User: What shape does this take?
Amino acid sequence: MSYRAINASTATLTDLLTQEFVADSLLGSRFGAGGNMEVYARTPEEMSELDNTGLSVWLYRIARDPELLNKPMRRTGPDTYEYRPLPLRLHYLMTPVVNRENPDGNDPGIEQFIIGKVLQIFHDHPRIQGALLRGDLIDTHSSLGVRLEPLTLEEITRVWDALESSYQLCVSYEVSMVMLASDREVDRIAPVQRVEPGYGLIREESR
Assistant: This one.
């Protein structure tokens, strides 16, 4: 995948969440036609400032995968190798945002309904692939694993401190692997023309 794979992964998550919210008997009227809630790839703070209501799916951290980083290059021809892609793990903070201007106010019940549905969706879809992929991931063999991250209170507090905002109900998910293909030209090597076996005699050195 090209550098657009990160954006395609975010679009895949937001689209799946939107579809599942709209299909839900309780949340469908809020996220469907006529509703005022949407799934946004924005920070909770940005949503509040823009008076957006719904779910914030914020990509707050990108990390390299150390194990796949040193994976051998793939041979693409007799004399060519494909330069290894960059394996990434994406970390998303999922936060319900219900603004005061909303008729329901900051009803914790609505926030809990939304976060509960998020947990259910990704429990049912721990691996996203095939027809669920979006953007540059369409028609590829990509597969995104979605894992709930058990962050400590200190870790999640640091995230909210970075936002310069008070803590809100949220959950964090790790999405992997997102493979960023290199833009470098393929490496070319000279094919083996001849093999010459060598022989030698091992002798014990006398003292």
